[in-house]
Design a protein that fits this description.
By secondary structure, the protein is mainly α. The chain has a domain at about 85-210: Orthogonal Bundle (Cytochrome Bc1 Complex, Chain D, domain 2), CATH 1.10.760. The protein is about 45% helix and about 0% strand. Helix 3 packs across helix 7 (about 160-170), helix 4 (about 105-120) crosses helix 8 and helix 7 packs across helix 8 (about 185-200). The model is unreliable at about 205-218 (pLDDT under 50).
Length: about 220
């Protein structure tokens, strides 16, 4: 019994000394000794890296066949919903006729659309959508008029539908490339909402007059 007690006391003293020693560090930023450090620093596989845990040896695993990514929130559903219109004249005409803005008609979406427009579109289309952005001004100074977009309020664009605006951002139009990889579907619809205000900057249209309705859902 006494031998066991002496062993217990020795173990407690050794454990206490180890604890005290682990707190004494020359580097004040050092965390000291870590218990089971492998639990703190787990091995993570980088995207595209070989991974022996899967049969195909890849870290990036494809989705299950036949599945479609979904989200429980309404904005996420918009972002994950499929785009059933082909990049073709027929697909374009169908999108123009059928595509409607699914966002609530609120000031929030209009403000977000304006903010995003000023980030992604203003360089060419200009602050007021007149096709006189800073990039275009440089081109015009070099007598390159072929890349100047028409004003949204011009006869060419003031009557185009919201579906046509969204379709152009999704696939690109003329000299403008696709923005599908830079902007989510929700963000493209928000920009569409703001662009509609530039189509009719004086009186506003029915599609934009409700933007002041702040009670609508976001």
């Amino acid at each position: 019994m006494k031998r066991n007690l002496r062993f217990s006391y020795a173990f407690v003293l050794a454990f206490t000394a180890t604890g005290l020693f682990s707190c004494i560090q020359t580097d004040p930023n050092s965390p000291g000794y870590e218990y089971m450090p492998d639990m703190y620093y787990s091995i993570a596989y980088r995207p595209g890296e070989a991974n022996p845990n899967y049969a195909d040896g890849k870290t990036n695993q494809p989705p299950v066949d036949g599945t479609v990514a979904q989200s429980h929130d309404s904005l996420g559903m918009i972002n994950f919903s499929s785009f059933p219109y082909a990049n073709s004249p027929e697909g374009r005409e169908k999108a123009i006729a059928e595509l409607k803005n699914p966002l609530g008609q609120s000031a929030y979406h209009l403000d977000e659309g304006k903010r995003l427009y000023n980030v992604y579109c203003i360089a060419c289309h200009g602050k007021e959508g007149k096709g006189d952005g800073p990039v275009v001004k440089v081109l015009l100074a070099k007598d390159n008029y072929g890349l100047q977009p028409p004003a949204y309020s011009s006869d060419q664009l003031k009557g185009i539908s919201e579906g046509q605006i969204f379709y152009a951002m999704h696939f690109g139009k003329g000299n403008m490339g696709s923005y599908a990889s830079q902007l989510s579907a929700v963000e493209r619809w928000q920009i569409t909402r703001f662009v509609q205000t530039l189509q009719n900057p004086v009186g506003g249209s029915d599609s934009t007059a409700t933007a002041a309705d702040t009670t609508a859902s976001k």
